[in-house]
Amino acid sequence: MAQRIQGTEDLYGGYMRAWQHMQDVARDLFGAYGFDMIETPAIEQVDTFVHGIGESTDVVRKEMFRVFSGALMERILGAGSESGLKAKQRMAMRPEGTAGVVRAAVQENFVPQGAAPAKLWYAEPMFRGERPQKGRLRQFHQVGIEVLGASDPAVDAECIIMLMEFYKRLGFDPKGLKLMINSMGDAQCRPAYRNMVRDFILDHKDEMCEDCLERAEINPLRSFDCKNDHCREVMKDAPLVTDNLCDDCAAHYAQVKKYLDAAGIEYVEDPTLVRGLDYYTRTVFEVEAADAGVGAIGGGGRYDGLMELEGGKPTPGIGFAVGFERIALALASQGKTLETPAPSCVYVACASPDQRHEVFDATLRLRQAGVRTEADYQGRSLKSQFKQADKLHAAVCVVIGADEVAAHQVTLRDMQTHEQVQVPADELVQKVTAHLA
Ligand code: HAM
């Protein structure tokens, strides 16, 4: 039997409706903030992610799924390396949405000089070659937003306020959520801070793991997130970014907090929050659900240098993404669900095979009027058609038998009360829609 790949899921039934519900909530909420939907390709040039997410991040180094056509693979195997490939032949599945949206914004010029900020949202599968575990998948789904062309700290605060409102509308009790914020500095102050952390790690090299020693040179801030408890203990004494921000970044961070305070948003400042993607500057944030044990249920931040890294003009940006599967798990841990009930329908029951044509015609008319309609295709008895109708959550059954056909009528049976009325066959659609309303 063919097997689903580990770390991937089939979305169907209630789980699929939960994913659609999350998108509906997003569309409503983000729409009020002026966001339009975007979908970028699931495959991009490797360079889009290398430039944006950063060559030294785990996401790019270890987790990106590379894509090769069979023909290309043969060529690479023949040549013994992919070094002869052109940039456009080096492809990967998107591990996250931001780099692709920013690539599109550069290519399609979403933010021309003097234009209002581009506000975009997406709901898409992402792909990361991680070791599968609870809440950590190889194909997972994100709802995310990106705002391109605004550096005002009010925008940072608005994004965070909108994110927290999103959780609320998905059913979370805000008291059970922990919002962590930090500022990562910018091109002015971060390089010096990065060197301070590198020097700190090298000063403690006997106490740190191999990975951290490697990180010291390529990405020292990642050591704050090292999985090794001892490294994290050592890093508690490392210099903190918030003590080393330049005046502009410190003022920007102070403003963001002021706006959040004014909006009554509760947050915890975590100066070791560094996020796993290199493009962040200034504000970063992450949200966890208490006791859910699934890691972050969302995160984001500002990325004022990313448009340039993707080949565009300097343009500030900020955004966040929320993982659907983790949201579903976190809500379940609080005894809640994102799932909406299966939609009800109308069932057209056939009293005997002689009325098949009338049933076929009635089913068609109802469907054309937009009514979710089911019928029997297996020659079931009337009794088992009613049972089937119940299973399909039918609110109404339309029963067509010889008497009905002779009288140009149909019988409407309310599936809850089992009350039956006869109505003229040519008024079927009006009578059924009135009954449903
Ligand atoms: P991220 O923190 O890598 O950020 O992912 C955002 C969310 O996606 C996480 O908080 C988590 O809920 C979910 N997620 C991440 N990896 C997995 C996985 N392997 N399995 C299940 N869920 C996962 C980003 O992706 C950024 N692009 C967010 C952003 C947008 N920053 C600025 N704009």
Question: What does the main sheet amount to?
Answer: 8 strands, mixed
Please report the number of helical segments.
16
What's the helical proportion of residues?
25-40%
Mean pLDDT: 95
Class from helix and strand fractions: alpha+beta
N-end to C-end Cα span: 46 Å
Low-confidence stretches: none
Molecules bound to protein: histidyl-adenosine monophosphate
Approximately what portion of the residues adopt beta-strand conformation?
15-25%
Shape: elongated
Query: What's the gyration radius in Å?
Result: 28 Å
Strands ordered across the widest β-sheet: 1-5-6-11-10-9-7-8
Count of DSSP strands: 16
Describe this structure in words.
The protein starts with 12 loop residues before the first helix and ends with a helix. The protein has helices at residues 13-32, 46-53, 58-63, 70-79, 98-107, 153-170, 190-203, 210-218, 229-235, 247-262, 306-309, 324-333, 356-368, 382-391, 402-406, 428-436; strands spanning 36-37, 43-45, 66-67, 91-93, 118-127, 139-148, 177-183, 268-269, 281-289, 296-302, 317-323, 345-350, 373-375, 394-400, 409-414, 420-424. Helices cover 39% and strands 20% of the residues. The longest helix has 20 residues, at 13-32. Strands 1-5-6-11-10-9-7-8 form an eight-stranded mixed β-sheet, with helices on both faces. A five-stranded mixed β-sheet has the order 13-12-14-15-16, with helices on both faces. A three-stranded antiparallel β-sheet has the order 2-4-3. It is elongated and about 95 Å long. Residues 96-98, 128, 130, 135-137, 140, 142, 144, 146, 276, 296-301, 319-323, 325-326 line the site of histidyl-adenosine monophosphate. Histidyl-adenosine monophosphate binds next to strand 6, strand 10, strand 11 and helix 12.
